[in-house]
Amino acid sequence: MTQPVPIRRVGDRPRLLDLCCGAGGLSMGYHLAGFDVVGVDITPQPNYPFTFHQADALTFPLDGFDLVHASWPCERFARVTAWRGNQDNHPDLLTPGRERLLASGLPWIIENVPEAPLRPDYLLCGSQFGLNVRRHRAFETSWGGGGDLVAPCWHHKNLLPFAHKAERAYADAMGCTWMSSTDARKAVPPAYSEWIGRQFLTHERSIAA
Fold first, then answer.
1. Could you list the residue range(s) of the whole structural domain that residue 108 is in?
2. Taking phi first (over 0 means left), then psi (-120 to 50 degrees means alpha), and beta for anything else, what does residue 180 get?
3. Is the pLDDT of residue 170 over 70?
4. Which of 37, 176, 194, 201 could form a disulfide with 32 if both were Cys (CB 3.0 to 4.6 A apart)?
5. Integer Rg of the chain from CA
6. Sorted alphabetically, which SUPFAM superfamilies does this protein's record hold (predicted)?
7. What are phi and psi of 94, to 5 degrees?
8. Which run of H or E residues covers position 169?
9. Is residue 1 part of a domain?
């Protein structure tokens, strides 16, 4: 387990680096949890709401951050890739990405689809947070999970599954209202990372006490 490190703050906010940030769904959640967020993505993200760097997430410097989040591309592992194409056409960035985070000595979080090869310390769905969407995502953390519990999924018949014909409604239901519909195709609801960010802060305070 990664050992706690002294928290460096911007004002009264710890600093978080969001690698492979996309348009910032998870970044927004960490912001709401109390972090000063910096995003990194290899492609331009004109709708990203915080400080942004277009760069390679596998080489961007990690120094100066209290927590690192990484959403390595999921196409290698996602079932939908197998339905529509070939998973082998997509590189596995999760494995070298995890190795880099492990070597950093910093606390970290990795998010990906549930079928990805990670330890699901948290497995979250929009229905657990009162959102009208069905979207499962797994999170592996350097501290191994624990903390507060959330209610089980409730996949009632009115939950929105992702569909291109209704993607604007889906984006808004996730809470990603600032994104374009195209941005939101790969986005994750901010509610997930707001909850996980608060779990991390509680965990750090309990160690420091």
1. 9-203
2. beta
3. yes
4. 194
5. 16
6. S-adenosyl-L-methionine-dependent methyltransferases
7. -65, -40
8. helix 167-174
9. no
